[in-house]
Write a structure and sequence with these properties.
10 helices
Length: 269
């Protein structure tokens, strides 16, 4: 993977470096380290601590502007597969007049997939991949496999369906209805099985799981009860401008509310 990491001055800098180290060591095919102008010593220090495999090219980029601007500018210079950053401002700054969630804005504007790091560094052993189904679930599985396989992580592939869907499919009991839906031949489930096959083909252990209810609530409930180390939000096919707004809201809300590092898969299947 062509990896870009923001290692400039930020509240979560140590967390980002600690979390990124195994990804860089085992999965990076190139590495770009980014900081704001005037923070060149931080770039050199991070390059020493992050140890890519022998022969992996490393670029150090100090760019004018704030962290947001530096990340976007560096990402636009060359193609990347993954951009990694943590919390870029202090918690109190988020409630000041005129402030806005930086993670949401960066995730929306970046072309590569985005990994927002939060919490203490932890071994990446269990990944929750939440997907709406559809053909782009297969693309999401391919991206997640590129992280999970070299790190030896397992994946739970989660599909959240609405209680209305269960009702219209004729399933009365919620828990039994989810099990029947996931065992059936609906197009979403068939595609999720194909995505699971992609992960298994890459040597990644995978489980399929279904839940019913509000999407964000059910994903967060699964995170709280599942001892996961990373949330991956699957890419979606956007059919209309309204779909785009709704999906960006879901992604942004999960970035704001997730207690774990969150990967937003970008691109198309």
């Amino acid at each position: 993977m062509r990896v870009l990491i923001y290692v400039g001055r930020a509240p979560s800098r140590e967390t980002v470096i600690g979390y990124s180290a195994p990804i860089v060591e085992r999965a990076a095919s190139s590495l770009t380290l980014v900081a704001a102008a005037g923070q060149e010593p931080l770039l050199q220090e991070a390059a020493t601590r992050l140890r890519p495999a022998e022969g992996v090219p490393v670029a150090l980029r100090a760019i004018g502007g704030d962290a947001h601007q530096a990340i976007l500018a560096a990402a636009s210079e060359h193609p990347h597969d993954l951009a990694v950053f943590g919390r870029l401002n202090r918690p109190l700054a988020r409630i000041l007049p005129g402030s806005r969630p930086r993670s949401r804005a960066i995730a929306q504007h970046l072309e590569p997939s985005v990994l927002r790091v939060i919490g203490p560094p932890r071994p990446l052993r269990r990944i929750l991949l939440a997907s709406a189904g559809g053909i782009t679930a297969i693309h999401s599985a391919r991206v997640v496999a590129r992280l999970a396989a070299p790190l030896g992580a397992s994946v739970t592939l989660l599909h959240v369906l609405s209680q209305q869907s269960l009702f219209f499919e004729g399933f009365g009991d919620r828990r039994a209805g989810v099990a029947q839906f996931m065992a059936g031949e609906m197009s979403e489930v068939v595609t999720l099985r194909e995505a699971a096959a992609v992960l298994r083909g890459a040597g990644v252990p995978v489980d399929l799981k279904g839940r019913a209810g509000p999407v964000i609530d059910e994903i967060l409930a699964e995170l709280r009860g599942g001892a996961y180390d990373l949330l991956a939000i699957g890419a979606h096919r956007v059919a209309s401008a309204l779909d785009r707004i709704l999906l960006e809201d879901i992604t942004g809300d999960l970035l704001d509310q997730s207690p774990l590092a969150t990967l937003v898969v970008k691109g198309q299947g």
